[in-house]
Amino acid sequence: MKEITYRGHRIRTGEKYQPGQDAKQIAQFIRRNIARAKRDGTIPKALHTTVLVRRYANGCSIDIVVRGLPQDAPPFDSNVEAQYSDYGMGINELLSPIYESYQRTEDNSPGDYRSSNFLGFVKWQVVPA
Question: What is the DSSP letter of 76?
Answer without folding.
Answer: B
